[in-house]
Design goal:
single chain, about 280 residues, alpha/beta, elongated
């Protein structure tokens, strides 16, 4: 079953022009006999949700499967991951994990209820994305240097929102605080969408966000990108400088997303787990 999912995801992620042809193929195996649940460990509207729904849609189109996203947000994505880790390894529960809950969380939470190495099995890498620092389009902050100057003049008054404590995005803001020798105030939210609404309303000065979460509002002219945190510029935001370019040498913070299944999910062994030909 894992092998079947892996090959299907490979088609989805690497051969988008082949969707129609794959969807037209006859499905000879019995799997799946019911809808597949894709656990999304963050609320609707954020980068994880956007990518999970895209993958679910393409798996449905490519294979005629029914893949249903199920948002289980909270605690930096660890609640949703824990639920997926506890699920029966039958092939009917998959989860969109990311760096936050698979790599960072085990170092931050003393009583994490899952072990990402032992309790989950990786199926496919989905995306690698930088983090972007944005502000409202009408904000007084025109550049990242404007933010630094304001934060140095009045420590703990410039605010930045994130999708939650302990996320890679939160850590990107704190790492920048250290690199710039400033103190901005972190305002955690339950997901990117809530943080986005407050920065658009001017209730917080900045948002540190994954590129997928912020891209639509940037393109609509409602958010101004100040910098991306990766070592290289984002292909989605080619005119936005990196933090390193702006004088903070070797600054590089990015995140990744991948599809996982509960450990023990069979690769094969019965007709429903046979690979696509």
């Amino acid at each position: 079953m894992r092998r079947k999912l892996t090959r299907s995801l490979a088609l989805v992620l690497a051969l988008p022009l082949a969707f129609a042809a794959v969807a037209a193929q006859a499905q000879t195996a019995a799997y799946p006999a019911k809808p597949i649940r894709m656990v999304v460990p963050f609320p609707p509207g954020g980068g994880t949700d956007i990518l999970a729904r895209l993958v679910a849609q393409k798996l449905t189109e490519a294979n005629h499967w029914t893949v249903v996203p199920d948002n289980r947000g909270g605690a930096g994505g660890t609640i949703g991951i824990a639920e997926a880790a506890r699920a029966a390894p039958t092939g009917y529960d998959i989860v969109m994990g990311q760096k936050d809950n698979m790599v960072v969380a085990p170092w931050l939470y003393k009583s994490l209820s899952y072990n990402p190495v032992k309790d989950l099995t990786a199926v496919a890498h989905v995306a690698y994305t930088p983090v972007v620092i944005v502000t409202q389009a009408n904000s007084k902050f025109k550049t990242l240097d404007d933010v630094v100057k304001a934060a140095r003049a009045a420590p703990d008054t410039v605010t930045y929102g994130s999708p939650g404590n302990g996320t890679t995005i939160h850590l990107a803001g704190e790492i920048f605080n250290g690199a710039a020798k400033i103190k901005m105030r972190h305002v955690p939210y339950k997901g990117s969408n809530a943080a986005m609404m407050d920065v658009l309303a001017g209730n917080v000065d900045l948002m540190v966000s994954s590129v997928p979460s912020a891209l639509a509002q940037i393109k609509a002219g409602k958010l101004r990108p100040l910098a991306v945190t990766s070592a290289k510029r984002s292909t989605s935001l080619p005119d936005t400088p990196t933090v390193a370019e702006l004088g903070y040498k070797d600054f590089d913070v990015s995140t990744w997303y991948g599809v996982f299944v509960p450990a023990g999910t069979p690769k094969e062994g019965s007709p429903r787990f046979q690979c696509n030909k």
